[in-house]
């Protein structure tokens, strides 16, 4: 077997570092095609200095300063976090505002999928009965009930895809009227309205909790059907009618069956690709994320926007260091200012908790070659493609709250995978794309999750967890455009129910995690 040629990848002609692409990295003494000899062993995805960098000198990747050398770094050396001083965060003052006028993207027509139309005009990619909870106290009872519903009732309703309990840790022991408490409350309310749930509303309550059902889902929360607003369907476990545990379970199952009947009457119909609402996210990132998977997602994002769909990108701390790139792409000054407000709010939130932005980069990110949050941010932003940013959502808000019906949207969320996914669910996504370099078995019960590997090594090892191998870009076997189109077509198949993702196949469902900045009591 022949030895693979040494391969390094730089992102811009002005970069003075490149990443090593070979599986397992490269040993000291390796001569790159450029003639540069490695002075150190450099792990895969880690950086090698292309030129001598003096102490205090700029270290550039993506033509962005990702750090300053703490000591002289010789050409051919391994460049890692311990050699770099991280730049200061970009000020939120004096930013470019709506200065970039990208070329108008040619409309992409003729693409459709088979989805479920809802009364409020949204479209589901799945037909799921979601049972909302008002407080963590009922989670065990609901879990028991859902298992029985799935085994005893669901087989009778073949057109219903699943039954899920919307469990969480909120609802009591919290300052229910404190500043910030509106975020978890509107998040839970809007998750209940996700397009994949068909407008069916069912709630399991304990009875004594602070977050009462009528507060969580007040009148007007759901569209009026047949000239009447649906009554709030609540099973309260503390009702005197419940004598014993099994009577609670019987009540939940009896009410659930009414919703299952209505959902089962629904059928998929052909809808335009513009009905897709796609959330894009990355987790377990590495230095390949910004080279392979995320640029491919960015290309696909442009395809979706051209088709009239809605795409949300998020993760405040993972784009904060590229805020100037985002405000310059805003479709209007108002959109730019809304992004700045979200960044400023989060800056203050982190400052209050005495946490700085450097805490974002995880041990796994660093092992995967990302030296700091500046480098990570540059690779994260490319998921957003090149289209103008047409809207901004605060945490827990729904697209309809801002009258957003299509285009590229910034949905402000923390960078934690599960909180970000939870908030994108609340915003109204009906399909999720998740890229990873280190690997994570992340999945959601409420929406299909397409997993994209940044490296071929990960795709081979996790062959039954990754849906797309973007590592083929680094291997020279495919282009960013090839993988972007593959992703777009897979989205239409998954949205139509013609294909299941690996996360769906294995039923990998992570818990919903609420962002709750309000104090507990």
Tell me, rounded to a whole number, the average pLDDT: 95
Radius of gyration: 24 Å
| Strand order, largest beta sheet | 17-18-16-15-19-20-21
Distance between the termini: 65 Å
3D architecture notes:
This protein is α/β, with parallel strands linked by helices. It contains 15 helices and 21 strands. It has helices at 139-153, 182-191, 213-216, 245-264, 293-306, 316-319, 323-328, 333-352, 363-367, 373-381, 417-427, 456-461, 471-474, 480-495, 502-506; strands at 8-9, 17-20, 47-49, 58-61, 64-69, 78-79, 84-85, 112-117, 123-124, 128-133, 162-166, 202-205, 233-236, 269-272, 277-282, 310-313, 389-393, 407-411, 431-436, 449-453, 468-469. The chain has a 7-stranded parallel beta sheet with strand order 17-18-16-15-19-20-21, sandwiched between helices. Strands 1-2-3-6 form a 4-stranded antiparallel beta sheet, with no helix packed on it. It starts with 7 loop residues before the first strand and ends in a 15-residue tail after the last helix.
Structure in a nutshell:
The protein is of the alpha/beta class.
Key features of this structure:
single chain; 521 residues; 4-stranded antiparallel sheet; 15 helices; 21 strands; globular
